[in-house]
Amino acid sequence: MEYYSLLGLQKEPFSNSPDPGFFYYSPEYQECLQRLEISIRLRRGLNIILGHIGTGKTTISRILVNMFKKEKDRFLFHLILDPSFRSEFQFLSCLNDTFGITAKVRSTIGYKEALQDYLFQKGVHEGKIVVLLIDEGQKLTSPYIEILRNLLNFETNEYKLLQLIILAQMEFLDVVANHKNFMDRVNISYTINPLSVEETRDLIQFRLQKAGLPPGQTLFDDEAIEYIHLQTRGYPRKIIQFCHHALVMTLIREKRMVDLEIVQAVQEKSLFMDDELIRFKKNLQGLSQSYAQLQSHLHAINKD
Question: Do 100 and 241 have their domain in common?
Fold first, then answer.
């Protein structure tokens, strides 16, 4: 028997897989997706979505692709999950493979010419809209940014031939700081922020109901939710991880509700711990050891 069935649920409510069916549409997520959809439909070119680890950037990319599922004949979506490449040649080769292009010549120039021909064929002659999503965009280096900038130069008098969406962590701003010609082409620059306490509560309740909890019921009391928000600082991925451990702890202690005692136990037993808190505790332990050694040394000096 699955653990969640013991809580009256039909599915796992806090799976760490990016299931679009369990995606909580906060007002900020809704605005981000709506603006991206408009930009793609109007063929505006470059869009950058920024956010810290765990804010839901990858899930947003999946949701966005799904939004155009019924129009897949016109909107051609392509995805690069990790732009970590060893050379410009490898990056261009990956772009050709991603678009399903066979270059006449396997060289840097040959790949660039093939990409240009592809964009004009699809965008002008066939009337299709080519969309490239790049996740982990902070890993892009200057040569690859320059390649993307050149691809964004391909356009008609009315629209861009490539719709580029880069999803990246905040440090991407440092990467592109010296590429003004690239940043000048940005149509949308949107930053995804952590959730508020109210949004954290809505996310938890939404996932529970999607998993089969009847409307009007809950498994987390207010104090527990406030504590979860405090410990996770509103990052969706961390909230989901914390809630999973909290439900497991609830069953272990034979309770029916996640309360403050449960979430504190989860935190104290290190079933869930923030990375910065881990580093802080290690540093604190190091300082304590150094202080003890200093005290011992001073004590030995005073005895002499």
Answer: no
